[in-house]
Amino acid sequence: MRTARNRAGLSLDELGRRAQVGKGALVGLEKAQGNPNFAPLVRLADTLGVSVSALLEGPAEDGVRVVTADAVAPLRTGRLGSEARLMLTTSGPAPVEVWRWTLEPDEEYPSHPHQAGVVETVSVTAGRMTLIVDGAEHTVEAGQSATFAGPAAHVYHGAGETACHLIMTVHLPPDPAA
Q1: What is the mean pLDDT of the chain?
Q2: 142 contacts 126 by C-beta, under 8 angstroms
Q3: In principle, which of 12, 35, 91, 164 could form an S-S bond with 127, CB 3.0–4.6 Å?
Q4: pLDDT in tens, 20-69
Q5: What whole-number distance in Å separates Cα of residue 16 and Cα of residue 30?
Q6: Minimal CA–CA distance to 80: which of 108, 101, 100?
Q7: Phi/psi-derived region of residue 134, left when phi > 0, alpha when psi is between -120 and 50, beta in every other case
Q8: Cα gap 114→173, rounded to integer Å
């Protein structure tokens, strides 16, 4: 995180103000201490113009990164058992985050709007969800995918009688430094 903050030319105070994260928490994160919540991580990544996993992952071995679902702790857990796991982020000038989500019926997650240029895609593999983008509801069922601009206000809602399983990709804008 320190590298991304320095590259962005931000002090700890300014990063904290923009991302709405306390300076003490930022100091701990830069020292790889603590266990941050999901929402502050998203705000920090958006403020720094990097992926969430860029703040969390180490380097790939031999150019290949293999990640199993059990090896990745959920970054978000809902009160009814929903969870979101950031599986990996691709490298390159325009990285893509790959998330595995489980949304329990009637549980929802209102997402923090992302930086300009971010595009999200959700692909439902089982169950059904309601995707709410700028107040408009869209039903997405097993075998269907939807995509939208990440800066729009959006909510993921578990719909139906069983848990909704989905893969979400977050396409980040190209890094101007790349």
Answers
A1: 84
A2: yes
A3: 164
A4: 888 888 887 777 666 666 677 778 887 887 767 666 655 555 667 677 77
A5: 12
A6: 108
A7: left
A8: 11
Q: How far apart are CA 139 and CA 127, in angstroms?
A: 11
Question: Model confidence over 135-150: pLDDT tens digits?
Answer: 999 999 999 999 999 8
End-to-end CA distance of the chain: 18
CB half-sphere exposure, 83, CA atoms < 13 A:
10
Amino acid at 141: E
Most confident of 23-32, 66-75, 163-172: 163-172
Dihedral of CA atoms 8, 14, 20, 21 in degrees, nearest 10, equals 90
Token representation of residue 123: 């692909």
